[in-house]
Specification:
mainly alpha
């Protein structure tokens, strides 16, 4: 009981730590792709993560059946497409812009689910979509007041679509299955796809440095395995609305790290776009439920309960 109580009290901090680490990943990836070919970077990151997670899950592998490979395989395909387009987009965008444009997946998920499950988006989802489009427009405006959707912006927006598709497939595949086993399989599939694409289209990295090793270790262990565990554990003991708000802070931390460690200097127009996209995510994920709870006189903390 004491263990459960401790987890309930610290769950939100675990999610917050995961978002901080993910926020830093944009800067690490931006510097890593200067020396490591993108497909090989993804291959090493996800294959190593699959191996580490697979070892940790040894007692659970006996529950494996064909459905895990089918759903885990599709999850891996969409995960690879999402990270590949995001990382190639990162080549031509600042980490802060890449982070905020990627978060449009939160707004897109209800519309993708509409196609998959015939569940119509509500007014909050529609409002979020409008705000998100305006936010993307502000980020993409050049000095001549013309929308400039360059290669990096388009690839990053495409990655948001792929992340949204991945979440819809994950929500369907996770029904009645061990989500950690599915995760290990999707990592393996994404890593194998990265390796194949690397062998087809990229030169194998022959010069290796200590810096490259540190970058890959951080991306694999901290940004993939540890953050995944913190998110899964944290969401188990956190109200879904509160968890959504905390997870959406990833893009905010990405801006902070980008300014501090990469020299990124977003202008006022960019910050207005960031703010609109961030509010769109909050609106879509929480339906502004915290405002309604406060207006009803129920304290914020009292309204929270363990997540399902």
């Amino acid at each position: 009981m004491k263990h459960e109580a401790f987890l309930q009290k610290t769950a939100r901090y675990g999610i917050l730590l995961a978002t901080i680490i993910w926020g830093s990943a944009f800067v690490v990836m931006k510097t890593a792709i200067d020396t490591i070919p993108i497909f090989y970077l993804l291959a090493i990151r996800f294959l190593a993560a699959a191996l580490l997670l697979g070892i940790c899950l040894l007692p659970r592998w006996k529950a494996l059946d064909r459905s895990y490979f089918r759903w885990g395989g599709w999850m891996g395909v969409f995960l690879f497409l999402a990270y590949a387009t995001q990382t190639f987009g990162l080549q031509d965008t600042m980490p802060s812009v890449n982070a905020f444009l990627t978060t449009i997946y939160c707004v897109l998920v209800p519309f993708f689910a509409w196609v998959a499950a015939k569940k119509r988006p509500d007014r909050y989802h529609l409002l979020a979509a409008v705000l998100c489009v305006i936010g993307v427009g502000l980020i993409s405006l050049d000095g001549s007041s013309v929308i400039a959707l360059d290669r990096g912006t388009l690839l990053t927006l495409l990655s948001g679509c792929m992340f949204a598709a991945h979440i819809v497939v994950l929500s369907k595949g996770a029904e009645g299955r061990d989500v950690f086993l599915l995760t290990a399989i999707q990592f393996a599939v994404a890593g194998l796809l990265g390796a194949v694409c690397g062998m087809l289209w990229e030169p194998f990295p022959t010069i290796w440095s200590e810096k490259m090793t540190v970058q890959l270790f951080y991306l694999t262990v901290f940004c993939t395995v540890i953050t995944l565990s913190l998110q899964a554990l944290g969401q188990k003991y956190t109200d879904p609305s509160a968890a959504s708000v905390l997870l959406s802070l990833e893009s905010v931390f990405a801006v902070i790290f980008s300014i501090l460690f990469y020299g990124d200097r977003p202008n006022l127009q960019h910050f207005c776009g960031f703010a609109l996209i961030f509010f769109a995510v909050i609106c879509s994920e929480t339906k502004l439920s915290f405002f309604r709870k406060r207006k009803s006189g129920v304290p914020w903390d009292a309204a929270q309960g363990p997540g399902e």
